[in-house]
Each structure stands twice: as C-alpha cells, then as structure tokens.
Amino acid sequence: MSRKISMKQAINEALDLEMRRDPTVIVMGEDIVGGTGAKGEDDAWGGVLGVTKGLYAKHGDRLMDTPLSESAYIGAAIGAAACGLRPVAELMFLDFMGVCFDQIFNQAAKFRYMFGGKAETPVVIRGMVGAGFRAAAQHSQMLTPLFTHIPGLKVVCPSNAYDAKGLLIQSIRDNDPVIFCEHKNLYGLECEVPAESYAIPFGEANVLRDGDDVTIVSYGLTVHRAMEAATALAKDGTEAEVIDLRTLSPIDWDTIVESVERTGRLVVVDEAHPRCNLATDIAAFVGQNAFGALKAGIQMVTAPHTPVPFAPSLEDLYVPSADSIASAVKRTLSPKGASPRIAA
Amino acid sequence: MAQNPFPLGKDELLKAYRTMRTIREFEERLHVDFAKGDIPGFVHLYAGEEACATGIMMHLNDNDRIASTHRGHGHCIAKGVDVHAMMAEIYGRSTGACRGKGGSMHIADLSKGMMGANGILGAGAPLICGAALAAKVRGDRGVGITFVGDGASNQGTFLESLNLAAVWNLPVVFVVENNGYAESTAMEWAVSCDSYVDRATGFGMPGVTVDGTDFFAVYEAAGEIIRRARDGGGPALLECNMVRFYGHFEGDAQTYRAKGELEAIRASRDCLTILSERVIEAGVIGRDELQAIDREVNGLIEDAVRAAKAAPLPVAEDLLRDVYVAY
Ligand SMILES: Cc1ncc(C[n+]2csc(CCOP(=O)(O)OP(=O)(O)O)c2C)c(N)n1
Ligand SMILES: [Mg+2]
Known about the structure:
heterodimer; A: alpha/beta; Rossmann fold; seven-stranded mixed beta sheet; five-stranded mixed beta sheet; 12 helices; 36% helix; globular; B: alpha/beta; two-stranded antiparallel sheet; 13 helices; binds thiamine diphosphate; binds magnesium ion
C-alpha cells in the first residue's frame, strides 16, 4: 500500500519500522522525546520540528533524550555501535557537528581501518542541513563536502520522502557510520511512499528525467531547482537529463559518466560552498574520465563563498536557483570557450 | 521622600527599571509581530529574565566584554546596544546591528563590548576566556562575562572553560541563567549536580546562587564577584534562578510545562513587578514616574519597529561583502 506522506513522516516511519524489526536499534538526541524530567506532557516535542513525534509511545525508553552535550552523546552512540547496538543519534542541526566532530571523524570513521578491519561501527548520525529557513549562519549550512572528504564515513542526502525512507532504513542496516543529511526545507514535501519497509542501496543515483542535450547532477533541495530548470529549458527545445545522487559517499560515478558520454554536457549543482565541494569533485572526475565526450566546459552552480546570510533578501540569492541552473545549461550550449569565467 | 534603603541612587534605580522595561517591551512586541508573520527565522525571547542581564550589566562599562547566547536580546539591551539597530537586524534590514546578516541569534556590537549572541550552545565561554585574557595581558582591568543556560551548562566547551579560567586566573564571571528548561527538557533531569555552587567548587572557584527575578539580589551578588575578578581575584560562577515567560522559541506550545505553571510564575515571579513594588513601597520612586518611563519605552519600541519596517533591505552586492578583511 502506498500513500502520500511528507519527508518528515517518512523519516519517522523508517525509524519506527527499524525499531520494530531490530531490538538493537536505539534513537537518541536533544528533545527527540521532549519534556524529560518536566511536569507536563510526555513526548512534549518529538524533536525540534516534530520528526520523532509519537515514537516514544511505541518504543518507550529506546528513545532517549540527552543533555546538551553533543561530544558526549554522539561519542556514546559511536561507542555503543562499536559494541553491538545500532544507535541513530540525532544532531538537531548538522552545523552542531563543530562541537563533536572529533568523535565522528577521528573515532567512528577510522575504527574499521585503524583496527585492521576488525571493527564495525553501525551508527547513523542524522540531522538537518541547508539554507532557506531564515535560520542564519550557524543553522543553515550544507556541510556535505566536509563529510565526503573523510574516508570511513558514508554520506546520504535524500531529496524526497520516498528516498528518505528507503535510504534511512538502509543507513540503519549498514555496518558503517552514516551521516544522514535532511534538508529542512524538504520536510513538508509529500510524495507517494509505500507503507511497508524497503531499503534503497547506497551508491545508486536516481535519473529523474531523461534528456540527450545536457546532464544536470545534484542532490537534496537543489534537485528540485534542477527539475524546474529542466522544465523551463524543454520549452526552448533543450532536453536535460537530471540525476539525483541520493548518496554522496559512496557516489554513483557510472550513472554520471554514462549520461555525460551521451549528452556531452555537464552542469553540477551543489548547495555547498564553491570550493572543494561535490560539484568540483564530480567535475574533476568527469574531466579525468570522460574528457573526450565533452562538447563544452563543465559548469558548476553552487552557493557563494560566504556564510549563510540571515536577511531573506540575501538568503534568497544564496541558494542556487532554477534560473541560475538554466543559465549554466545555456553556457554549455554556446560554442566551446565562449563561456565567461565564473568567480568562486 | 523617604530615605533610600537600596544600594543604588534614585537615578540608577530609574535606569535599571528603564532597561528592564525596554527589554520586556522589546520582547513582547516581537512576540506579537512574530505571530503576525512579520518576523523571519528563530526568535528566543528573554521576557521574564530581565533582572539578570540588568543587575549584572549595571556593573560593566564598554571596555568589559560579554558573550551571550541564543536568547541574547536582553543582554544586548542591557549592555547598551542600540534598540533601533537591534530591531532592524531582526527584520533583516541593512540598517541592522549586523547589516541584516546575523539576525536575532547573532546580534553583536563590539564597540559596546557585546561579542555576539550565539547560535552554538556553550560557544561563548571559551571566547570570553579569550576576552579576559586580552584584558589581563593589556592590564586594563576589563572583565569578561559569559552567559550560559542551564542546558548549555552541560557543554564540554563550558566545562573546559571553567577549568581554563581557574588555571589562568582570568577575570571572568560565568553566569548560569537557570530558567529550569533547555527547550522542553527539565534542568533537574539534565544537570547531574544538585547545585551550581558545587560545580564551581569542583572547578576551584567560588559559586553563588541568587534569585534571578530579584534585581537587587543579582545586582549585589554580581557586584561582589565582578569587583573580585577586576582586582585579579580570578573567576567565579553566578547562578541566577529565573523564569521564562514565553516558549523556548516563538511557536513553542509548551506542553511540557505543568498546568497553571505559566500563570503562576507570571503572577508571582515577574521581576519587573517585584522591582516596581519594592521601590514604590520604600517611597523612593513614585508609580507615576515608572509609568512615565513605560510610555517613553513604548514609544521607543514603536519607533524602532516603524523604522525597521521602512528600512532598506540588503542587496546583491552585500551578499559577497565582509567574508574577509582582505582577500
Ligand atoms: C551546540 C548546540 N546544540 C544544540 C542547540 C539547539 N538549542 C538551541 S537553544 C537550546 C536549549 C538551550 O537551553 P538553555 O541552555 O537552558 O538556554 P535557554 O534556552 O533556556 O535560555 C538548544 C538545545 C544549539 N543551538 N547548539
Ligand atoms: Mg534554560
């Protein structure tokens, strides 16, 4: 059975199903239940935006509120994972990674390799990413490139409810540490999602739209902007293929390269800052492995090299728009070498 | 006129009242305008907690630094940040304290010694150790005050800073603003020790707990430990027990509170009422004098909102400006 639910509900459902299936799955985070130790209602919050609401009634103490001590509880989730549990730890806004990054990149990410292949750390660290929420510089970042840089971490960033559910279930079952990035501006977006359990394998991109003229690659919120751009371009007769990466580490190189070999043109869209991000990574890979197929220079559309501004008038300029993606596509269609130099 | 039994003269008392009233009016106006949909983003209100910021900041000058929290409007106003600039910032205007780039959670005015509200819990504590270190190195008798909520007092950054300040004998005061909750989670559950005084003792510094709704209690306790820090006596911790009148942030239904809790604290623990009653009862200030201040403050906030709404928005060129000093 399938019905329309939001990405927020899909994440809640994935947690519920996996907690039912596997008693070693526990969920922890700040106010993910809410009202702990207080005299009012139980399950008073269910997470800051209500993603885990209702799970406490179903699973009781397997949902744990934490003190505001990210180093300690994220580290404890990692330690518990190394000792046989499958913790899902919520880091409310992934910007707060700054407080507890050591436990993630020096500990969790390295155990497997550093201990000679003898350790498994099946932890999921999930939290919000992305701009557009008027949440300002410390609650809006797309830090995905920091995570993909680290060997040992897997990095997931769904663009819709269907993928969020299947990818979160896969993340929980996966035996490596996973950073699960939820774009806060996609929480309310609904699509058809089966009620039953299903897992989407890592490293498989989703081709959302077929086209022979240009390949647009993105992930998260900007996938939707890319689709808007593709629809607009189709009116002028340009058919864009739109690829949603879904997982950033591992990444589906084959789908990207096969598409570019057919279209000869590539636009990569990334909400992260322009230096050393997913866009530069993909551009470099295609440049190295499919240079012969390219009919034009690769174009990148990213956020600017600035922190996320608070003012709505600026934040609206910050996130890549459908227009900026369409313009980038048009640059790939102009003769070789004619595109202006785009400053980072 | 009766003899003044308070540790401050009448002018200073009026100033304290004006500061507290300004904070209250500022926050209540935001509460209303947020509900109307006029204000973008996250807004955490300081209403109910005014005596704490005010009682402490009365001892500071522009050379003293403070590091604030996500609930920073009260700290800003008490430290002398311009109310118009604050309002414009919250409205995302280019006339804002941070030219619209920071918003409610990041208001700063370094010229006033206000090192910023902060979106990262516990982040102010190490920064204020740095401010205090700079004052100590310069020998200018400056002090640093960091505010931290009961919830954020469990951050490693905060606990490490207590130790660092003690080891370096820094002129720092750590103010724990204990309003009983971190978002929806009770302080009694989340903080392992029974008293912050014990925590301070564990880190080798004096700790004091006061009723943070009593302006005079805060004022006197803060005065003593700030003087001590200024004179080279080292850091201390001040816990202010207080109440928050609104949700964690605007939009919070507050179902974690006991039934009747909000009504009760508003009735019996309103720091503005407590201060007014005391100065009026002592015969030092007349009710009409306070009411005159109320009217002026109301006008000030009204003006600030009108000016903010009419102010220009930041434009495209502003997006790329000020990432570096030079690049
Ligand atoms: C490092 C970090 N973790 C979590 C948060 C999310 N958060 C913002 S305010 C808050 C509660 C803070 O409670 P407390 O310190 O008691 O301050 P209060 O809000 O009561 O003034 C939380 C969890 C954050 N901003 N930064
Ligand atoms: Mg608190």
